[in-house]
Amino acid sequence: MDAFYASVEQRDDPSLRGRPVVVAWKGKRSVVCAASYEARRYGVRSAMPAVTAERLCPAAVFLPPDFVRYKAVSQAVRAIFQRHSDAIEPLSLDEAYLDVTENKMGLPTATLVAKTIRRQIWDELHLTASAGVAPNKFLAKIASDWRKPNGLFVIQPHEAQAFLMTLPVGRIPGVGKVTEERMARAGIKLVGDIYTIPLEALEQSFGSYAQRLYELARGIDHNPVVSNRVRKQISAEDTFPEDIPLSACEPHVRRLAERIWAASHDNKREAKTVVLKLKTKEFQSLTRSMTLGGPVESCDVLVSIALSLCAKVDLPEKQLFRLVGVGLSNFRLERETDAAAETSDEPALIPYDLGVLPSAAVGDTDDL
């Protein structure tokens, strides 16, 4: 989907169309969740501090995010996907992989499937979507961004290698700024540069990641589209209006713990690991975790463990923090719950994807 949150706002309020729209809470600690393409012309981007966005585009209309509404629209888009394939791997509210090797409508090509889906989204939801069509997920992801907004780009199998050769290495999944800078120092700027390097030499420089780089430089990606992917962690976090000491974090930790307990309980998932996340005034991230022998038994236990993890933070009392988060991970697998059910009168708990927890930091690739 194109500038998803902002596009939904412009669709639902005609007075916003053609105007720069920024989806964000106003405030010096808020970040941009989404920016319309009109706002992007001024340099406004997702994850940017809202105060920076306001400085870059004083005429922008700031709107608080409405995640309930965005999720409803996302579900309507998903329903359109399901007319064509059951092999759907959602990445976020606004993005998904579809395997259309076999499609329900019997369309002869993947390109025609993509065109049909984009037309249906526009006709029924009055929103635009961009699509990438390619032989695998790696190439399809790159293609989906190639002609945004409202674009379609196709990479045929015989075109893949030539397409990749001139691509900046930063477009490869897993190559962040640090790795990109490291590659640049070694004279590696394009995917084509990786292509020319023997695997053994890549392994000396990049270790276990070398095999993946070697394959992607050749357009090889065997990762399948995985439907119903189970989320590995449920978490929530708060960014404070003002920096606070650790001792003042307790009410925030309690509220966040109660929130994620409700989410995991409603979705019948049992976790063994509790995670505490803190970010200092200086933007240093800290994590502390505790793994139990069995699932966390209650919300009170979760709160107690989260607070005990705060005590493990060995920093001066004068240290201030800008963010705190609480998470649950290490969920029991379906086979574990099935085995437990065989020895218990209680029904088995079947894990499934929680979905998105609404918060200021929730979002997707186009909309943080």
Automatic annotation (TrEMBL):
InterPro entries: DNA/RNA_pol_sf, DNA_pol_Y-fam_lit_finger_sf, DNA_pol_Y-fam_little_finger, DNA_polymerase-Y, DNApol_IV, IMS_HHH_1, Rev_trsase/Diguanyl_cyclase, UmuC
Residues of the active site: E95
Keyword RNA-binding: no
Cofactor(s) needed for function: Mg(2+)
Enzyme class at the top of the EC tree: transferase
Binding site residues for Mg(2+): D94
GO BP term, example: DNA repair
Its EC number(s): 2.7.7.7
Gene3D superfamilies (UniProt xref): 3.30.70.270, 3.40.1170.60, 5' to 3' exonuclease, C-terminal subdomain (1.10.150.20), DNA polymerase, Y-family, little finger domain (3.30.1490.100)
NCBIfam families for this protein: PRK02406.1
Function as written in the Swiss-Prot or TrEMBL entry: Poorly processive, error-prone DNA polymerase involved in untargeted mutagenesis. Copies undamaged DNA at stalled replication forks, which arise in vivo from mismatched or misaligned primer ends. These misaligned primers can be extended by PolIV. Exhibits no 3'-5' exonuclease (proofreading) activity. May be involved in translesional synthesis, in conjunction with the beta clamp from PolIII.
Protein name: DNA polymerase IV
Organism of derivation: Occallatibacter riparius
Lineage: Bacteria, Pseudomonadati, Acidobacteriota, Terriglobia, Terriglobales
